[in-house]
Amino acid sequence: MSSRIEQLIDEIEDYIESCKPKFMSNSEIIVNKDDIDELLRELRMKTPDEIKRYQKIISNKEAILNDARNKAEALINEATVQTHELINEHEIMQQAYAQANEVVTMATRQAQEILDNATIEANNVRAAAMQYMDDMLAHLENVVTSASQSASSNYDNLLGSLNQYRDIIISNRNELHPVEDMVEGLEMETEEEDASDIDVI
Asked: In this predicted model, what pLDDT tens digit does every residue of 42-59 receive, in sequence order?
């Protein structure tokens, strides 16, 4: 069963895939800021809970080791009891000691094997949990970086387009002024000709 953080990452990827491409662009998309913000907000809220969950899994290493220690101590205690019983029951003390030492040695060896196996198991659990969390966070980092770069690129393209439109507008306005100056010049020449005609009369 996948975690909620994995589901959110899938939803972000699906949302990005469903976004409309930018006009005349194969690599840029139009993203609804409210929708992506909502997904990222929930992702930020769920990430600490997921981390705590895997930290709890990692902490189980100590529980595994404690259980192994308890089993080892129980074996040693049982062996010690058997040793005392052997010593008390047998008339030949030397044989009793030999058997007792053998039982203690076997119990110690078994206890060490339990501890070794428990340590390996606990380390495997911890390593798997840490690797899974690291992979998931790395994937999340890639998704957020991709979204951030796409938004930055869209903003730069928009700013460049606005600057081009502004230059075109300025150029168009400048082209309008020579026409106005020409009209004013013709009006002045007409007035001078009228004044000259009056003087001749």
From this structure: 888 877 776 777 667 777
Cβ(36)–Cβ(14) under 8 Å?
A: no
Q: How many domains does the chain have?
A: 1
What is the residue range of 24's domain? 4-154
Average pLDDT for the chain:
76
The answer to whether residue 129 is domain-embedded is yes
Q: Concatenated DSSP letters for 41-101?
A: HHHHHHHHHHHHHHHHHHHHHHHHHHHHHHHHHHHHHHHHHHHHHHHHH-S-HHHHHHHHH
How far lies 68's CA from each of 55, 61, 115, 121, 134, in Å?
A: 21, 11, 6, 11, 29
Among 3, 5, 15, residue whose Cα is nearest residue 139:
5
Do the domain assignments include residue 137? yes
d(C-alpha 103, C-alpha 90), whole Å = 15
- Residue 34 CA to its chain's centroid (Å): 20
Render pLDDT for 163-174 as a digit per residue (tens, 0 to 9): 887 888 887 777
In a domain, 175, yes or no: no
Task: Tell me the percentage of the chain whose pLDDT exceeds 90.
Answer: 1
First to last CA, the chain: 108
Flag whether 184 is in a domain. Answer: no
29: which DSSP letter? B
